[in-house]
Amino acid sequence: MLDLAGSTLYHQMQHCITSQFSKMTDQQKSLSETDSETQSDVESAIALCRARGGQMTPLRRLVLAELMMSDRPLGAYDLRDQVSTKSNRTISAPSIYRILDFLCDLGVAARIESRNAYVACIHPEHDHACVFLVCETCGDATEIENPKVESLISNDAKRLGFNVTHRTVELSGICAPCQSTA
Ligand SMILES: [Zn+2]
Ligand SMILES: [Zn+2]
User: Fold this and answer.
1) Cα separations (Å) of 117 from 75, 104, 151, 172, 178?
2) pLDDT in tens, 87-97
3) Is 10 inside a domain boundary?
4) How far is the CA of 27 from the centre of ligand 1 (A)?
């Protein structure tokens, strides 16, 4: 929280300093701010992986960053192409799958079964069941957090003596933007 307050103050100061410049400069500034916010999210997710005992190779970092920067689920082949281009080497699909399994095991990414695609988890810092609203039209996957749903599921599983190893819930439907354009 302290960090957040500090950075807000910094942004305000930056705004005062840059407000005398042209609109173009303002646009560029807001672009680079978004980039640096994503960058710091990526860094904290990497730190989390390390804390959970995962070794973060440059390729694993790159796959995680691509997932976090994407606004929709990515298939393994899309990721393979993007990562190959960015790293200037040919990465095989099996390597990408291994990295995706690794990231899912560490709880920083999740697989959307119905789309056969992967997303970065929005709150990887605590152990939780990922619940996704998956749009059948645009393919967007929005993660929602609801501790009530989570405890219902885990209590029922416990009552039945079921040992849960994988927790991703997917709800299919049409997202609000797609409904309004239909
Ligand atoms: Zn999640
Ligand atoms: Zn949609």
Assistant:
1) 4, 12, 26, 14, 20
2) 999 999 999 99
3) no
4) 32
- 131 CA from centroid of ligand 2 (Å): 17
- What is the number of alpha carbons within 13 Å of residue 9 lying toward its C-beta? 6
For the chain, the 3-state helix, strand and coil shares in percent, each to the nearest 5, are 60, 15, 30
Range of the domain at 148: 18-175
Neighbours of 9 (CB within 10 A): 10
Ligand nearest to the CA of 181: 2
Q: Is residue 34 one of the residues assigned to a domain?
A: yes
**Residue 122 token pair:** 């929005």
Report how far ligand 2's centroid is from the alpha carbon of 73 (Å): 12
> Which contacts qualify for 23-27: CB closer than 8 Å, 24 or more apart?
none
Which ligand lies nearest the alpha carbon of 71? Answer: 2
> Is residue 3 in some structural domain?
no
Task: Tell me the C-alpha distance between 22 and 181, whole Å.
Answer: 35
Q: What is the pLDDT of residue 32?
A: 57
Q: Residue 120 is part of a domain; what is its CATH number?
A: 1.10.10.10
- 150 CA → ligand 1 middle, Å: 11
pTM: 0.75
